[in-house]
């Protein structure tokens, strides 16, 4: 069997199409929406008009037989701008939450309502983290209690760091249904539009990715129909019964497997930011003169750029490997998904910082985009699992030891 690192024509066309949108629409608007710290509705509308923001597009790429459609899309969009990029793809996380846990009927009902259509845009929000339960999902306090008389679930709690939180039409919320089972006693619910008791709490003013809306979501005795429990009650009851019987199966392992498959997409976003900063630094080094010559002729600058390029390409290869493994249903025996996210996130922070250094004083001003890229990059060592959590996952996987 031959091995090729060449992209197919379909992938090349996808890359060029998304890149053109990122270059012509996203990048020119990046500074404006970063300064406003507002959700970029006009840019989302443009994405919807060409079919980039749509349930059909994300579904098509999710079923790419080699798994590269999503990473390619993410890298090119976030090459344009991370804040606007996250505004465009944030709904996809909520859609993935429904697709991975819901029935076929639930996917068909709720996912299209997360996107809407041009002229009538909708958003989805995935709500998992809490003020006292970020990396420690076992500390989750949001509770869901079943009311058998009405076939409704009553959900109470506060979620934080929710992309599109409070702004979204459809919220996907994780909650505890059996506190004694800890992580294995959790379930996911869809909160339909206009449901009483759901409100937006604090909107966060962030260091970076400012065009992406991030806020708390408050659930005050929110009542949702039984059909809003993803997967259905029968499946939940069976899972809880196995957990009570001590079966080594269910929530925690399943969650880790899911994250391993979604982390390459996040890694691809970081690769896009790093590549953008590297390209700015490279162009600057070729044209900026000091002591009568272009600064790229100085070995210190040239070697820094060589390291930046090497780290970016290495990160991309780790992302592509993990994405391909997920598409083939392969086991992540060495936590390859976490490896890709760890490497790409750390590379984005390092490369954007190095780009600022190469630009000197100019890099520290908002006249050049590397200042914004550096701010955006930092979140990739924090959200979707911190770098420390990625190392913990990798260490536990390769050692088999309960490392803490």
Written description of the protein model:
By secondary structure, the chain is an alpha+beta fold. The chain has a four-stranded antiparallel sheet, covered by helices on one side. The model is unreliable at 249-255 (pLDDT under 50). It has twelve helices and eleven strands. It has three domains: 9-121, Orthogonal Bundle (Butyryl-Coa Dehydrogenase, subunit A, domain 1); 124-244, Butyryl-CoA Dehydrogenase, subunit A, domain 2; 251-399, Up-down Bundle (Butyryl-CoA Dehydrogenase, subunit A, domain 3), CATH 1.20.140. α4 packs antiparallel against α5 and α8 (251-287) packs antiparallel against α9. Helices cover 52% and strands 15% of the residues. It is globular, with a radius of gyration of 22 Å.
Classified in CATH, the superfamily of the largest domain is Butyryl-CoA Dehydrogenase, subunit A, domain 3
Q: Assign the CATH class of the largest domain.
A: Mainly Alpha
Q: Provide the succession of SSEs.
A: HHHHHHEEEEEEEEEHHEEHHHH
Distance between the termini: 41 Å
Radius of gyration: 22 Å
Silhouette:
globular
How many discrete domains? 3
Which residue ranges are poorly predicted, with pLDDT under 50 across at least 5 consecutive positions?
Answer: 249-255
CATH topology (fold) name of the largest domain = Butyryl-CoA Dehydrogenase, subunit A, domain 3
For the record, the CATH architecture of the largest domain stands as: Up-down Bundle
Sheet with the most strands? 4 strands, antiparallel
Strand content: 5-15%
| Total beta-strand segments | 11
Overall mean pLDDT stands at 93
Helical fraction = 40-55%
Adjacency order of strands in the biggest sheet: 4-5-9-8
* Count of alpha and pi helical runs: 12
Specify the structural class: alpha+beta
GO molecular function: acyl-CoA dehydrogenase activity; flavin adenine dinucleotide binding
Family: Belongs to the acyl-CoA dehydrogenase family.
Keywords: FAD, Flavoprotein, Oxidoreductase
Cofactor: FAD
